[in-house]
Amino acid sequence: MARDGDRTVITMVNDYQGDPTEFAMVIPTPVVLQESQINIGKKSTVDHLDAYTAPRLVEYHDPDPCRVNEFQYRSLQSAAPTASARIQKSAAAKTLGVTIEAEYTIGEYDIVILSATQSDGLQTWLDREGYKVPPKARSVLASYIAQDMKFFVAKVNLEEKAKLGGEFLRPIQLAFAHDRFMLPIRLGTVNAKGKQDLILYTLTRKGRVESTNYRTAKIPTDMGLPLFLTSDEEFGKFYKAMYAKTAEREGPAVILEYAWDMNWCDPCAADPLSQDQLRELGAFWIGRDQKPRIGTNGKVIAPNRIGGQARDAFVTRLHVRYDAESFPEDLKFQETGDRQNFQGRYIMRHPFKGDISCEAGTDYARQLADRFEKEATQLASLTGWDVAEIRQKMRDDGQILPSIPETEDQQWWEGIWNK
Predict the structure, then answer these.
(1) Which domain holds residue 53?
(2) Rounded to two decimals, what is the model's pTM?
């Protein structure tokens, strides 16, 4: 969601699997959308934003404790109907208290914009048109009708989809002006198999976005992790388990995963988005306002070389796992003036493998035991995994303590209990 003032641009990417004939969406909107307010976007641009805001895994290598410190790090990533048919269809809808405000075919989608006066009539119309709407949706539809919301209804046009080819459905984009800063999520719960998973990226000008009707909690960050999680696959398993544990612990909450001024990042999991990409995602103000921006240090932000001008955008990444019971209301938001940067950042420290035959080396070897145990217990706490199994995986991966070198002043009993 790109938001500035009362203007909103929503880009929706649906992780849909199955026959395209089974796909449809019904999205409440505050206004009747004209054809020019609907666009088909690029999935690659959303993928780029996802990679840019992804949780960060940084790796450090312990220096030789007997020499001057040095380190390095790396980042990982994660056929149109005839006029007569339309007239008949519209008349049938009218008898149910449903008004077909507009119909469009845009890209691979057939889109209908509806308004309604009663939920029973709207549900009957959707059923007649082949949309699989369960009976329990009636109360949700009624609440949107009471708010004078309209309904954006889309399904796949098979002929257009065949022309395009490809496996994925492209993003649908909606642009409108309204004072409500919200995202309707309740209709998605009525026929869902289990909980829904939503990642929301917001682009704003002033600062971080937060929920106003649910608590906004931060994902745990700056945690030391065992080395067996270094691969993308293992790190992905860790993050999914940690998010599930966090969502369970926090209850009905919106989880903040990333918040950053898009003029810079340190470290970057992916290249920053260009001005053109930000405008593609709805940040319509990019490039229009040439006034200099002042950074948090009080200095003028210099123009960014990529795209020619500084990116006047702040990105917030929010993650929500929800169902009808835990999230009975739609998500409502506000833009804050908080420009403090935040990211989910996780740290791996590789032990020094060389000769540590010095006094400092002896201390270093003993400190590793405490560090390894802290990593194991911390991982168990974050994910709910069994700590004994974590310790075993660490040993299997070669994360074991180096032998403590003997020194001339070492007492005979030191080293018996290698804690």
Answers:
(1) 2-78+80-347
(2) 0.82
